[in-house]
Write a structure and sequence with these properties.
This protein is mainly beta. It has no helices and five strands.
Length: 98
């Protein structure tokens, strides 16, 4: 089913169709600042909706099997023509490996 352009964000997403647009440009990088602290940044650009996703994250190893992470997700784009939407999320994670 094809949807009108102004409803591009309502497309059915699946394992074969992971993005809002047909073309998506993605970059991702990670750097171990210290042996215990890892910093990463991911970004995606969606040309059709002039959208941008930024996802910085910080991970700190508390012990050999416990990690603490801060994950931020920020999206900005023109989901409806003429209106720019901004959506931000933040997550804390405590991970135990056994």
């Amino acid at each position: 089913m094809l949807l009108p352009d102004k409803f591009v964000y309502m497309k059915h997403l699946s394992a074969k169709n992971l993005s809002l647009t047909e073309v998506t440009i993605m970059l991702q990088g990670s750097y171990p600042v210290t042996p215990l602290l890892n910093v990463s940044l991911s970004g995606m650009y969606f040309p059709k909706v002039n959208g941008l996703f930024l996802g910085p994250s910080f991970s700190y190893s508390i012990t050999d099997n416990i990690d603490f992470s801060l994950i931020i997700q920020s999206f900005a784009g023109q989901l409806v023509r003429g209106q720019t939407e901004h959506i931000n999320f933040g997550f804390l994670r405590l991970k135990w490996n056994f």
